[in-house]
Write a structure and sequence with these properties.
Blueprint: H1 11-42, E1 51-54, H2 55-71, E2 76-81, E3 88-91, H3 93-110, E4 117-125, E5 128-135, H4 169-179, E6 183-189, E7 193-201
Parallel strand pairs: 2-4
Antiparallel strand pairs: 1-3, 4-5, 5-7, 6-7
The protein binds adenosine-5'-triphosphate (ATP) and magnesium ion.
Residues 102, 105-106, 169 line the site of magnesium ion.
């Protein structure tokens, strides 16, 4: 049996194969990055640069940055700051940004192509800052909801338009929030949308 040589592949198939190879390379690259991050988190070798950061100013900057990025994709981001005083939180801004980016990129990936609205609300609940991020996407079935923060858990592959998904985004977000001694939860209603809540202890 002769081995097929690349030169025998018709040009139209060549492009298809190259696209498949390209997609797989992107996927493997993301997987390596995410797994590397996890192994560092697991070994407590990931460096966190904590500082006392006024949470209102942090959220105003972050949402403005995302708002501009999302506007280009015709997605609306609404931000409401319900706090009366801009209180400090012990924060690694870069890592918290990454956790929130993972949540927002899910809203984009699983949400409707048109009229997607992402809402961010900041409030103070007791001695914690509370960041709610909600979307008007398809929602998550109640029986699947308890699993979404598990590593590699994905609801169904058909939902995903983006083939580079690893199923690690929310697991990473949870770990990053927990290193801040915070909590992340999700509530969802099928057909209505999903709301993620991050609570972070206020700096004492
Ligand atoms: P990755 O984040 O690595 O690209 P992923 O998006 O599939 O992959 P997670 O971000 O951990 O993985 O999300 C887990 C699953 O939860 C997703 O596969 C998706 O089915 C579901 N999910 C997460 N966020 C939403 C959302 N806002 N709306 C609907 N389903 C969601
Ligand atoms: Mg994701």
């Amino acid at each position: 049996m002769s081995r097929p040589s690349y030169g025998d592949v018709p040009p139209e198939n060549k492009d298809k194969y190259l696209q498949i190879i390209h997609r797989n390379i992107i996927y493997v690259n993301r997987l390596i990055d995410d797994l590397f991050l996890f192994s560092k988190l697991d070994m407590q070798k990931l460096n966190f640069q904590f500082a006392s950061v006024p949470i209102g100013a942090f959220m105003a900057d972050l949402t403005e940055e995302f708002r501009l990025e999302l506007e280009e994709r015709q997605v609306r981001l609404e931000y409401t700051d319900m706090t009366e005083k801009d209180l400090p939180v012990r924060l690694d801004g870069k890592r918290m940004h990454q956790a929130i980016r993972n949540i927002i990129s899910n809203a984009l990936k699983y949400g409707p192509e048109e009229s997607l609205v992402i809402r961010a609300v900041l409030s103070i609940q007791g001695d914690s800052a509370c960041i709610e991020l909600s979307d008007n996407g398809p929602g998550i079935p109640a029986d699947k909801l308890p699993h979404i923060f598990e590593r590699f858990y994905r609801i169904d592959n058909e939902r995903t338009k983006d083939l580079a998904s690893t199923g690690l985004g929310l697991a990473i977000a949870r770990e990053l929030v927990e290193v801040h001694r915070g909590k992340i939860t999700a509530a969802s209603e099928e057909g209505k949308g999903t709301c993620f809540t991050i609570t972070l202890p206020l700096a004492g």
